[in-house]
Amino acid sequence: MKASSTPLDVRRELVDALQLDLIGPTGPLGNHQEVLPQAPSRWYLTGFLVPTDADEEQRSDPTANDELDQAAEPAGIDDDDSPEKPAARRSYLPSSMGISVLVSKSVTELEAIVRYGEYLPVEHVEGYSGPQHWQRVPQEEVVSVKIGSKVPDQGVVPVANSRGVELVWSIRGVPDSDLVGGLPPGTRSLSLFVVNRRKPAPDEVHDEGFIFQVELELSGDESFVARPNLRSLESDDWDERVADLQYREAYEFAVGHSVATQCVVENGQCRTARTSWLPTAEVEKVAPAQIPGVTLEMESLAVLRDGADAQAQLGAFVSNYKTWIATQRGSLANLSPHRRDTAEELLHRANIAASRIQAGIELLDDPQCLDAFRIANKAMAAQGRRRLALQGGKPPEQIVPAWRPFQLAFLLMNLKGIADPASNDRELVDLLFFPTGGGKTEAYLGLAAFTLVLRRLKNPGLTSAGLSVLMRYTLRLLTLDQLGRAAALVCALELERQQDVDKLGEWPFEIGLWVGLAATPNRMGRKGDTDAHSARRKTIAFKNDDRKPSPIPLEECPWCGEKFKSTSFQLLPNPDDPTDLRVTCANRRCDFSRGNRLPILAVDEPIYRRLPCFLIATVDKFAAMPWTGEVGAFFGRVDRVDSEGFYGPCHPTAGRPLPVDRLPPMDQVIHDVLHLNSGP
Is residue 442 within 8 Å of residue 488, measured between CB atoms? Predict the structure, then answer.
């Protein structure tokens, strides 16, 4: 690999290496007359066809029951229950593979190219005692397939010089559709299969009867007919209607059977389709567009002077968005009535979103909301700079944290719903749908930062404490990266609070991890108990050997990246009967060292008492809510407090009375990876 290789070159070489490793020589790859030191059916994992008349032993897949998933998995976020193994069932190797295309009524003949390799045992000199070698013999035959005009019809075409390989085809009519955008009248469906009808070879050399690296290429003088999604053309399902509109120009020309397909498309026409044992698809990069007149740098937004300055820095967001909406509306005339109705509704919703963004900008005329917005941007910039500096190995001062346009739009359009309890926006559930790595996490973390700060500004002193932002994950889907980013944000907010206690309150910003005991200890534990999952037991084990897993699902400081050491965890007030697990950074230059603990809670008992403002939870914990009395504190149902935390009906004698009847309820609920959750 060249030193100047681009990421695209590297990926291409990896795909080529995988192709050679799993399937063997194909196209320009590999030695097409290679000699293998082992039977090819053991050397290659896929891409070959066994004879249809082979006995069960030859046809069965010897690797089907191999245990491929025995690698150690990272700790999950629910209890580690091993799933039951499925019942054993014999798996068979394929004897055929094929391709289906749609052809117009005028097509009567197509050209097929069948490529494969056959491997023959090498004759060794007398006295040779090594492994049997196999010589590859490449084969390629061009076959004319005459399908005629009869419907339905079928046929078999022998492949020359193949010792029994056949092309089997069948054609049938497709019902005409009156739908706009449907199939042309007279369209037919053609399926073409390569079938290995060779005579099976003896078991000791059974690979002589197999054919390897099988490829079928189909071409014609006319383009194949594009395959529309007929179900969505007139569907009443909203998701299908939107998909039909958005992907109306994305065509599918072929479908594989036991194999994938590749189509050669030029100017919307496809005259050649071929099979592929290694499916690939190009996912285009989603890059944010530049919006003239909009300030995206977080630190610039952190110093907005007033509402007028906010309008000047952000107002172009709305004007550019409305210009784009008007442009889209001008293209509706070319759509079918059904698609036009869908597009009209989408543009109506886009106008609502533009109005909500404008309302968010106007909300910054309010001094408290403006202050919360500025502090949220400052905190997001601080955590972003540190995270990006650690990832890129650059000095933090060289990083300029900035929003992507959709992130800032999401933040602005939700400001009013957070700030105004009477806002109609509270009836909405906003969905962030973006590719992995696109920045969804930063978008909702920015809104969470605004929510947390505004709560402190509106409720002075202890009355602002309690759970404010609840983030729910599906089971086993919480990643350390997401947890680390949320923890880094809370660290940034806590440093802001420490610099201005009068403004942001005396109770610290903290983040809690409320998940199953496979990831975090659910009990503090005490000397003499037998709970192997207690915080005390895990902490002592880590202190004795810091090569063991950390007591919490973080291995390093979320603020500076220093790996946790045995001195990072403290059991307080004493190790024999602790009530709290404190975490500090071992790096003395970190802001969270030398007595300034990290604002992280990972044990259920302290979480119920301290009520972190930001709580990351999983659905298994939600299911336990009715059975855990202390959970009522998450909804503000506490009336007593001391330096260690808050207390409700479950602890009626602890602490002193709160200055208010109860704490405010939570302000925001976030559900990450929503599409992976099927529960309520």
Answer: no
Q: Which of 390, 411, 415, 413 is nearest to 402 (CA)?
A: 411
Sign for the CA dihedral angle at 562, 564, 567, 570 comes to: positive
Separation of CA 430 from chain center: 18
Highest mean pLDDT among 148-152, 181-185, 390-394: 148-152
Other CB atoms within a 10 A radius of the CB of residue 522 amount to 21
Are 638 and 466 in contact by the 8 Å Cβ rule? The answer is: yes
Q: What is the pLDDT of residues 84-94, one digit of tens each?
A: 555 556 788 99
Reported pTM: 0.82
**162-171, 201-210, 405-414, 516-525: which has the minimum mean pLDDT?**
516-525
Number of neighbours of residue 338 by Cβ within 10 angstroms: 19
- What is the bridge-based pairing of β-strands 134-146 and 109-121? antiparallel
Residue type, 365: D
Is the pLDDT at 453 greater than 80, yes or no? Answer: yes
* DSSP bridge partners of 563: 556
Confidence of residue 78 (pLDDT cuts 50, 70, 90): very low
Give the full edge-to-edge strand order of the sheet including 212-219.
Answer: 35-36, 134-146, 109-121, 212-219, 269-276, 260-266
> How would you classify the pairing of strands 640-642 and 645-647?
antiparallel
Q: How far apart are CA 630 and CA 633, in angstroms?
A: 6
- Strand pairing class (614-618; 469-473): parallel
Structure-token pair, residue 285: 């990069």
**Cβ neighbours of residue 619 under 8 Å, at least 6 residues apart?**
472, 473, 474, 475, 677, 679
- Chain centroid, CA 356 distance in Å: 28
